[in-house]
Design a protein that fits this description.
alpha+beta, six-stranded mixed beta sheet, ten-stranded mixed beta sheet
């Protein structure tokens, strides 16, 4: 849909196309509100495609005394596991315990007992050193006293955002990427009366009427709405990750480590056929509009942890396949170290402009509800949808074996990412394209399907967010780009010159923001 085709009056306009904005859009659509979402860049361009891919309670929040945040996160984790199989999946975590190191066995056990109580199910077990070494054969054995196994969940964060947006649109909402909210219009009484939006690239503008605007722009939140709390402001914190082939770090369970230099948690996590190592937690002092990237210092920090705990493996920067970095919108009073900051969220109200910022991916649904509750006085008198109703549209539970030649596991994955549209994806594809891209779980057929349906403006949108082969294959998928072009050229309105330029731009972006600093493809 173009700006010219867009209706002029809305019940609600949501600014920001990350997980928070997508959650608000989905809930507003379920309530029957005429809702528009606009995102200045691509959907999930910011933090919501650059997380550690975990849906979790956060054991470290227990240590910091944030019991309520952990409890809410565990409850939301359980709901998403139930509602979105194939997108949110349980993952086993291993946590080694070393003699003389902190945290010790009993401290960890108490935390895991609390974690289990919140989930209402015993989900952890302690193994002695011999059995634990069997579970993680490459782990450092010196002073190993054993370790715990527990469970959390993981997700494709960008596909989570897109599924929420797609299902909201199917329920009557509208969402536009590469569309900037240029101005919030107010009436003579100071109340919100509308917004001016602009296509980020063509500069086409349109004036819209609405009585309610939700600012869900994350780390950019104070650009639209300065904090009403004099001592509490947004503190952009960068979290960076390394991506390795599984041959470099051969693990089939996630491993939770304690960094030897500062005691921070660092994870090694199997994800989508690769292994993620992360994350860092440092102040981000660069411009927020520039694509964030890992620094040499962060690379060295993450490698130090992995090399200390997996000394027998040849883990080096040269064997890293890709990197990515994201900016967390953390609310801060400025007196804590980055890793000690709370991941709570805040909702601010200003005569029709409601800002929600902070928080974490796992609790997006609660954030959406609190935001809409705050905005309710500015909205039409519609009944609120059931707070405990499923946020995701249901998908088939039992899939006939080998339908279209796809295994039940592949169908589960497709339904998780695309909802009921997975049927169309498989039905429209050639059989040769219903096979995985080497080294990933992604099917070739996913590329033309999302190219047709999910507002692709640039090749980076396709390869870094709609599918993730820009992170999961060497060189950002350079080897496969010609096949990508052949599959998608009938689905995208690009001539040969545009394709050539998109490929050049994508590879330059990948070198700058997704490779090891100083290392070229």
């Amino acid at each position: 849909m173009t700006l010219e085709q867009l209706r002029e009056t809305w019940d609600l306009v949501v600014i920001g196309g990350g997980i928070t904005g997508a959650g608000v859009l989905r809930e507003a659509a379920r309530m029957g509100l005429a809702t528009l979402l606009v995102e200045r860049m691509d959907f999930a361009w910011g933090t919501s495609s650059r997380s550690t891919k975990l849906v979790h309670g956060g054991l470290r929040y227990l240590k910091e005394g944030h019991l309520l945040l952990t409890k809410e996160s565990v409850e939301e984790r359980e709901r998403m596991l139930d509602e979105a199989p194939g997108l949110v999946e349980q993952i086993s975590f291993l946590m080694p315990v070393y003699r003389g190191a902190s945290p010790g066995k009993w401290t960890l056990n108490i935390g895991l007992i609390l974690y289990d109580l919140m989930a209402r199910e015993r989900q952890h077990r302690f193994y002695d050193a011999g059995d634990f070494s069997t579970l993680t054969p490459h782990l450092e054995r010196k002073d190993l006293a054993g370790g715990f196994c527990f469970f959390d969940a993981q997700v494709d964060d960008a596909r989570l955002v897109l599924r929420l947006i797609n299902e909201a649109v199917a329920s009557g909402a509208c969402a536009l990427n590469y569309t900037t909210a240029r101005e919030i219009l107010r009436g003579h009484d100071g109340r919100v009366a509308g917004v001016v939006i602009e296509d980020t690239e063509t500069r086409e503008r349109k004036r819209l009427s609405t009585r309610a605007v939700i600012n869900a722009t994350g780390a950019w939140g104070e650009n639209l709405h300065p904090s009403p709390e004099r001592s509490r402001h947004l503190r952009p914190l960068r979290g960076s990750h390394l991506v390795f082939p599984p041959s470099v770090i051969p693990i089939d369970k996630a491993v939770a480590l304690v960094h030897p230099s500062d005691g921070r948690p660092v994870f090694a996590i199997p994800w989508e056929g690769a292994v993620l190592v992360g994350t860092t937690d440092v102040d981000h002092r660069e411009a927020l509009d520039r694509e964030p990237s890992i620094t040499e210092e962060e690379v060295a920090y993450l490698l130090e942890a992995i090399q200390a705990f997996f000394p027998s493996l040849d883990v080096s920067a040269g064997r890293c396949m890709a990197t990515f970095a994201g900016i967390r919108p953390v609310l801060s009073e400025g007196n804590l170290a980055p890793s000690e900051e709370s991941r709570d969220y805040a909702v601010w109200k200003d005569r029709g402009l409601v800002t929600v910022t902070g928080g974490k991916l796992t609790t997006f649904r609660r954030m959406a509800w609190d935001t809409l509750k705050t905005a309710r006085e500015f909205l039409p008198p519609v009944p609120f949808a059931g707070r405990n109703d499923p946020v995701f549209a249901p998908v088939p539970g039992d899939v006939p074996k080998e339908t279209f030649g796809l295994s039940p596991q592949t169908w589960r994955r497709l339904y998780g990412r695309y909802g009921t549209a997975a049927d169309e994806l498989a039905g429209e594809a050639d059989a040769v394209d219903l096979t995985p891209i080497p080294g990933t779980l992604t099917l070739w057929a996913e590329l033309p399907f999302v190219a047709r349906r999910e507002q692709i403006r640039h090749l980076a949108d396709l390869l870094l967010r709609r599918v993730r082969i820009g992170l999961l294959t060497p060189g950002g998928g350079k080897t496969y780009i010609k096949r990508v072009q052949k599959l998608c050229e009938s689905s995208l309105p690009w001539d040969r010159r545009r394709w050539k330029q998109e490929i050049v731009d994508y590879l330059e972006l990948w070198d700058r923001a997704y490779s090891i600093p100083g290392k070229k493809r």
